Amino acid sequence: MAPSPMCLLCDVSKETIEHMLFECPHAKLTCISRNSARPDLKLAAWKAKKESPPRGSFKINSDAAWIDEDKEACISCMIHNFKGHVVDGFAKKVFCSSALVAEALALCQAISFAGNIGATSVIFEIDAQAMIGYLSDVLDNIPWKIQSHILFIKDKVSLFVSQKVRFVLRT
């Protein structure tokens, strides 16, 4: 007997990356706090697909939504191929002390994820402009809460054959 193509969590739709990240009501619950509004990930995904990476490269969008009162965040990553199709991704809840730490964690996780799938040519897109500045700054000017994350990002990004981290405005 062949395995069912249906989502194991909701059994309502075919299990695709898009379904797991954007549509499955059970998967959404893992990243929604009881008091928070979920960012519109479908809109973000559509905007991210507007520019595809060059052939042989992957575009990786990472993002975070932080809830101050709960000290938790939802971090996510979407990996697009040169055709603009989502080929993989994740979304998960983390506990952290600030929105900046959440953005740093999201990028760290996205970099690790890209390495784990064997990507060699990558473009990381983030909407946290401060992170771009910290990635090109000396360690003395980086807030201590994200220093270890920035060091990790700089170290791991350099392992890709071709790499870029750039700011994208999400409006």
UniProtKB/TrEMBL annotation:
Domain RNase H type-1: 61-170
Superkingdom of this protein's organism: Eukaryota
One function term, GO molecular function aspect: RNA-DNA hybrid ribonuclease activity
Pfam family, one: RVT_3
PANTHER family, per database record: BNAC02G40300D PROTEIN, POLYNUCLEOTIDYL TRANSFERASE, RIBONUCLEASE H-LIKE SUPERFAMILY PROTEIN
Protein name: RNase H type-1 domain-containing protein
The organism of origin for this protein: Ricinus communis
Organism classification: Eukaryota, Viridiplantae, Streptophyta, Embryophyta, Tracheophyta
